[in-house]
Design a protein that fits this description.
alpha/beta; Quinone Oxidoreductase, Chain A, domain 1; Rossmann fold; seven-stranded mixed beta sheet; binds zinc ion
């Protein structure tokens, strides 16, 4: 079984032949059909997110169950599944209070799982939920996969595993964008384009896409942006006030992971409006807000992980949107690649050339 292994920060991933343990109790053996290459994979590879090598990245996958141990959820060979990079135990305080996206056992379940063995006998971990989407096959905890209908295309389902759910969910489930509103989306990468789709699904009147890259601004128009702004050419604050009789945005999303842009999103939001932080800054960074104005202007600042989605329900909600034509998944795929091409896909992502590269197995 082949995997593209993360061997060291900023060193090329290496395709290796590995053996995989059989599934034990509570575990499921999945053969991935497709896995998207996400910016968080790059962030681990370049050291922004601290996850140790050697390990196998990839957390935006969908595939088919090959074999299953005894599972509470009753997984069977042939089941079609999407990986959930936040495993959801279904039993903790958060999972039983409709907040599975911050499941209290997700790290314990997802981290440190080492089902892969190299020819020299050393073990390798599947990173991020233990999903190892950059391997042809994985043995995962049942809490880290969600069964979906067999008829839905797996290469589209894979995208729901991270970027689509994170972005669309930020608009629909976290910020709860309202009909007729003015929304601003700062950062139009794979997640930002999906925040835009979420705002469109919520029937926002104005969706302002902000990005330095002209190709991303163009893509944003396809996904539903009504206006685009190059922040080097146009003052965003003035532009947004011009659209809103001077008030500011009803909803502003930061989808880069920059404390300075988090603050800008706050500043361009109207009194009583909602600021939603989606991008993940460096783990040691801090953001500052005007202490008095948070109170006096009654703004809501919302952080969101995984689109605040409860994946066992909301993957199916998003599949409904896709089947109804409201959610464009095919348009997100810039290129289909093989396992050998992941290093090139990282490069293309860093250069801003692609929304999503998707590995097909
Ligand atoms: Zn991701
Ligand atoms: Zn839980």
């Amino acid at each position: 079984m082949k995997a593209s292994v993360f061997v060291a920060n900023n060193e090329p991933l290496v395709v290796e032949e590995l053996t995989l343990d059989p599934p034990g109790p509570g575990e499921v053996h999945v053969k991935w059909d497709a896995c998207g290459v996400c910016h968080s994979d790059v962030s681990i590879w370049n050291g922004t997110l601290p996850i140790p090598a050697p390990s196998i990245l990839g957390h935006e996958g969908a595939g088919v169950v090959v074999a299953a141990g005894e599972t509470k959820l009753g997984f069977q060979p042939g089941d079609h599944v999407i990986g959930s990079f936040v495993p959801t135990c279904g039993e903790c305080f958060y999972c039983t209070h409709d907040q599975a996206y911050v499941c209290g056992k997700s790290l314990e379940i997802g981290m440190g799982r080492m089902p892969y063995t190299r020819p020299d006998g050393s073990r390798i971990m599947g990173a991020i939920g233990g999903l190892a989407g950059f391997a042809e096959e994985a043995v995962v905890h049942e809490a880290a996969i969600v069964k979906i209908p067999d008829h839905f295309p797996l290469e589209e389902a894979a995208l729901l595993g991270c970027g689509v759910t994170t972005g669309v969910g930020a608009a629909l489930f976290a910020a709860k964008v309202s009909e007729g509103s003015t929304c601003v989306v700062i950062g139009c990468g794979g997640v930002g384009q999906n925040v835009i789709q979420g705002c469109r699904i919520a029937k926002a009147a104005n969706i302002v896409a902000v990005d330095l890259n002209p190709a991303k601004r163009k893509a944003a128009e396809h996904f539903g942006a009504t206006h685009t702004v190059d922040p080097n050419e146009t003052g965003l604050d003035e532009f947004v006030r011009g659209l809103t009789e001077g008030r500011g945005a009803d909803f502003a999303f930061e989808v880069v992971g920059s404390p300075a842009l988090q603050r800008q999103a706050y500043d361009i939001t109207r009194p009583g409006g909602t600021v939603c932080w989606v991008g993940v800054p460096r783990i040691d960074s801090e953001s500052t807000l005007p202490a008095a104005l948070v109170v006096l202007e009654n703004k809501t600042v919302v952080g969101t992980i995984y689109g605040s989605a409860n994946v066992r329900r909301d993957f199916l909600t998003l599949i409904d949107y896709a089947e109804g034509g409201a959610l464009d998944l095919k348009g997100l795929v810039s290129q289909e690649i093989s396992l050998e091409d992941v290093n090139d896909a990282f490069k293309a992502m860093l250069e801003g050339d692609v929304i999503r590269s998707v590995i097909r197995y």
